[in-house]
Design brief:
438 residues, alpha/beta, Rossmann fold, 5-stranded parallel β-sheet, 14 strands
Length: 438
Amino acid sequence: MIIEAVEVSSAQGQKLVNNLRDRYQTAGDERRQIVEDIITAVRQRGDDALLEYTNKFDAASLTIDHLRVSEAEMTAAGAEVPPALKRTITRAIARIRAFHEHEKQESWLVTRDDGAITGRLVNPVDSAGLYVPGGQGGKTPLVSSVLMNGIPAVIAGVRRLVMLTQPAAAGTVNPALLYAASQVGINEIYKAGSAWGIAALAYGTDSIAPVDVVVGPGNQFVTEAKKQVAGRVRIDMIAGPSEVLIVADDSANPAYIAADMLAQAEHDPMALAMLITTSKTVAAGVTAQLTNLLPQLSRQKIARQSLRERGAILIAQDLDEAVELANMLAAEHLELMINNPFQWLPRIKHAGAIFLGSNSPEATGDYLAGPNHVLPTMGTARYSSSLGVETFLKKSSLISYSRQALLADADDIQAIANLEGLTAHALSVAIRVKDGQD
């Protein structure tokens, strides 16, 4: 048996729930120091450090002249991508764009009767760095990451989009990644990855100008690097291992549940696949189906390790308890394989993305449904949201007072300023009031 089902009410179940709830992870001291040293090296030595790390870990023969993907490489990539894949990418772009168009935000103004004008000015950041993992040395290009990170930035109106991705050993980038980037509108692409790539985006080198926002998934070193440069730049989030939580009643198909748990587990040994069900029969069926389906996977070793070391099957007394637990765990992906899932939707408060019904596997959201698949993990869906157009926008407050408005508010402004001991604040109002009376 790969995973043993336990009842929520049991001592073992309560221990498991507590562990799952407290799953937020931070980098250990050793990794934190390694990343800090890498960032320092890139800040101090720029391209030399960037190339040194790239040559050591990714492409030994890459030179600085070939750090940036050339127009010739972009053109060649377009010719290499099969027409069927091009059609799929085009369809995905249309879906993702249509969804994110709804996230646009407008500037606004409000005028009071006394002539004061207040409002908010919404502008895109000037530049954004989009990190795309190399995908097993380019063998498994993460095209969806290009689309999910790039399209919201384009819709936001970001003028400069920079994509970084690890090169293969030969110093190349998978053509599918380059084609997807070209279709989104990303033409500034560099062959650099990991923590040194993030450092280059944040602080800049002679070859790569710094950006304002850094987004995109990556391994633990990428995540730690993003954490360390946050503040210098905006980042999308501190992401942990990918995770899915499936809530199922007795109507759910165990094979569907098992398949979706495996889809999560194949990401990484640290991926987290969870099931909360009200049915012992379903729980038993899922454990059997996991064993049956696992041999069909190309990454079965990874999936098996993930399920054995991290997987969880909990049996709840009823859906009320299951939904309460789901809100407590605040999973990245939440699947509701239950009767009338929309009836329970108002009860769901915390989840990165919610998939309703048995025909809505997480894979639909990963690739083609339209919503973004860059989502909060490790329980952070309690307070954060998916990547979107807003990630690339900033807001400035607008304030314009008329003489009448200033006189009307003067006493109250001075009262608060004096209470706080900020007499110059009070003076800045008083001097204007007095000036108009002379």
